[in-house]
């Protein structure tokens, strides 16, 4: 199942090149009173809602995909955890290029740990990236992103895939410079999630997915998640040893080699096997 959010906070299922509106099913979740939950209620209830979503899609009107504005597939992620240097070839390019490392200590992920991106940075592909500090290098980092489906704490890697609600493409947009990652990677719109949430049955083994991005048609990054240093299960295990992971939390698994700058006016096309593809404009 491929579940998208689009236009004015609508929910749809994606089949071929069309979206079918299933928003009415989600309205059953009701409204929430203060204090609001730390998890995403739709993602938390996704498993039980699936039969109703499928039924609603059978009768819902089909809207061509190119006519909708795609939003991020998770409305309310509690946190976004990201892996900084999780491909060996990206570590090598980061060490070799001062324009990437800026004198920061760059280490492989076991030493560098993970970092958090602000949830206010999240946008969908239809919203685009609005650059700030354009006097500095602003880079694309295309990454496999996963969304946690149920509460996880001290999960072991072998069991970790059972905690996944689905996968999407993540763009970990980054201002290069000497400051902490969380500052440089968290401006508004610097976390693009899309084009939709692909459930685990669609994706299969997350360790064998080709991940790529072009900018204005020029190939930039193209690698396989088989080269991840810490795989999806290990990242969930490690993350859940520090934090309780809640439904809707996002983990960005790290970017491969080939990161490069974007500028206003550029168009990025990102793609991951068995998930889909998305176009994102930069302004
Ligand atoms: Mn990254």
Question: Could you characterize the architecture of this molecule?
Answer:
The protein is an alpha+beta fold. It has two domains: 68 residues, no CATH class; 202 residues, Fumarylacetoacetate hydrolase, domain 2. Helices cover 20% and strands 31% of the residues. Strands 1, 2, 3, 4, 5, 6, 7, 8, 10, 11, 13 and 16 form a twelve-stranded mixed β-sheet that branches. Strands 15-14-18-19 form a four-stranded antiparallel β-sheet, with no helix packed on it. It has a three-stranded antiparallel β-sheet with strand order 12-9-17, with no helix packed on it. A hairpin with a 3-residue loop joins strand 18 and strand 19. The longest helix is centred in the N-terminal third of the chain and has 14 residues. The two termini are 32 Å apart. 47% of the residues are buried. The site of manganese (II) ion has 7 residues, from loops.
DSSP summary, beta strand count: 19
Which structural class fits the helix and strand makeup? alpha+beta
CATH architecture of the largest domain: Alpha-Beta Complex
- What share of the residues lie within helices? 10-25%
Shape verdict: globular
Tally of separate helices: 9
Biggest pleated-sheet summary: 12 strands, mixed
What is the CATH C-level name of the largest domain? Alpha Beta
Q: Compute the number of structural domains.
A: 2
Query: CATH superfamily of the largest domain, please?
Result: Fumarylacetoacetase-like, C-terminal domain
Identify the bound ligands. manganese (II) ion
Give the CATH topology of the largest domain.
Fumarylacetoacetate hydrolase, domain 2
What's the mean pLDDT score? 96
Strand proportion, as a percent range, falls in: 25-35%
Helices and strands, in N-to-C order? EEEHHHEEEHHHEEEEEEHEHEEHEEEE
For the CA atoms, what is the radius of gyration?
Answer: 18 Å
């Amino acid at each position: 199942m491929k579940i998208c959010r689009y236009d004015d906070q609508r929910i749809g299922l994606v089949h071929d090149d069309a979206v079918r509106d299933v928003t009415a099913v989600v309205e059953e979740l009701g409204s929430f009173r203060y204090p609001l939950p730390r998890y995403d209620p739709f993602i938390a209830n996704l498993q039980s809602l699936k039969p109703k979503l499928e039924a609603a899609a059978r009768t819902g009107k089909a809207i061509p995909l190119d006519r909708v504005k795609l939003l991020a597939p998770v409305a309310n992620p509690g946190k976004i955890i990201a892996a900084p240097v999780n491909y060996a070839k990206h570590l090598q390019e980061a060490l070799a290029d001062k324009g990437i490392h800026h004198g920061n200590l760059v280490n492989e992920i076991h030493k560098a740990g993970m970092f958090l991106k602000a949830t206010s940075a999240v946008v969908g592909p239809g919203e685009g990236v609005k650059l700030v500090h354009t006097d500095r290098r602003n880079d694309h980092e295309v990454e496999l992103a996963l969304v946690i489906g149920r509460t996880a704490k001290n999960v072991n890697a072998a069991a970790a895939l059972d905690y996944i609600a689905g996968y999407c493409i993540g763009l970990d947009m980054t201002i290069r410079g000497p400051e902490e990652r969380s500052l440089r990677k968290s401006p508004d719109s610097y976390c693009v999630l899309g084009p939709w949430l692909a459930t685990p049955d669609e994706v299969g083994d997350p360790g064998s997915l080709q991940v790529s991005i072009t900018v204005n048609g020029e190939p930039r990054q193209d690698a396989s998640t088989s080269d991840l240093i810490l795989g999806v299960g290990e990242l969930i295990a490690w993350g859940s040893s520090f934090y309780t992971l809640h439904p809707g939390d996002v983990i960005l698994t790290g970017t491969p080699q080939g990161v490069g700058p974007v500028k206003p006016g550029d168009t990025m096309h990102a793609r991951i096997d068995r998930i889909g593809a998305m176009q994102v404009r930069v302004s």
